[in-house]
Each structure stands twice: as C-alpha cells, then as structure tokens.
Amino acid sequence: MNTRLIAQDAEHGALPVLYAAVADISAGPEHLAHMRGGAELIKRSKRAQDPELADKLWDASERLTQIDSAK
User: Fold this and answer.
1) What is d(CA 4, CA 62) in angstroms, rounded to the nearest whole number?
2) Which long-range contacts (CB under 8 A, 24 or more apart) does 25-31 make?
3) Whether 54 contacts 61, CB under 8 Å
4) Which of 1, 30, 38, 49 is the most exposed place for a label (fewest CB within 10 A)?
5) How does DSSP assign 10-42, residue by residue?
6) Phi, psi of 57 (to 5 degrees)
7) How much is the pTM?
8) Residues 6+ apart with CB under 8 A from 6
9) Is 7 in contact with 35 (CB distance < 8 Å)?
C-alpha cells in the first residue's frame, strides 16, 4: 500500500514521538487526521488520565512481559 499521499517521511514522522518522549506531554502530527505535519498537543481522554487504570495496565504489562520494574 502506498501511503505517500497521507503519510510523511521518517524524519518528520518521528518528530512528534520524540517531542512527546522528552516533553512529558502527549503530542502527534497536527494535520490530516494527525498523519502529517509538526507536533501538536493532543488531549488525553479521561480514561487515559485515570491513575487506577494506569496501575492495572502497568501490572498487566509486567505480568505479560515477565518483567518486574521494581528490580
């Protein structure tokens, strides 16, 4: 499948991910359904902000990957 019309090159595609990783925020491309362009802030849903749900997800991730992050 050719995605040239809606996607962007690797350098520009990585920018929002890198920005989100170092800025402690959620970010994604700003244009075309968040598929192209520079980084923009993206609001998290209420569920994504739920600390209890985050703990459950973390516990499940540790169990499924067999990695204990407390070590």
Assistant:
1) 37
2) none
3) no
4) 1
5) HHHHHHHHHHHHHHTS-EEEEETTTTEEEEEE-
6) -65, -45
7) 0.44
8) 32, 33, 35, 36
9) yes
Q: Comparing 42 with 29, which gets the higher pLDDT?
A: 42
How does residue 61 score in pLDDT terms, banded at 50, 70 and 90? very high
The confidence score (pLDDT) of residue 42 equals: 67
Calculate Rg over the CA atoms of the chain: 16
Residue 30 has pLDDT above 80, yes or no: no
Length of the chain: 71
